[in-house]
Known about the structure:
By secondary structure, the chain is mainly alpha-helical. The protein contains three helices and no strands. Helix 1 packs antiparallel against helix 2 and helix 1 packs parallel to helix 3. The chain is elongated and about 50 Å long. It starts with 5 loop residues before the first helix and ends in a 10-residue tail after the last helix.
Amino acid sequence: MVTMNHSESILSSLCDEAEWIWRRMKACQRSLTCCNDQTLQDRLFSECRSLSARCQELNAAGSALAQHGHAHAWQLKLLNELIGRIKVHSPKSQMSPLY
Length: 99
C-alpha cells in the first residue's frame, strides 16, 4: 500500500478536480459547437467562465504548494498538464486575461 502525506493528498485532489474540469470543459465546447439556442449558449458560456475561474484557483494552489516545497515534481507536472488541457478547451471569447 502506498502512503501519501498531506500535501500529496491535496495535490492528488487538485489533479482529480482539474481532470473533471477538463472533461466538463470539453463537453461544454462540443455542446457550444452545435447549439443554436441563445439561452443555452449563455448558460454554457457562464459555466465555462466558472470552470476557468476554478482552474485559475487550482493553478494558484499548485503554485503555492510548489513554492513551499510540499509537492512532488511529477504531481505538479500532471496538474500543469491538466490545466493546459483546460485552456485548450476554453472558449476563446470567455478566457480570462490571466490565461
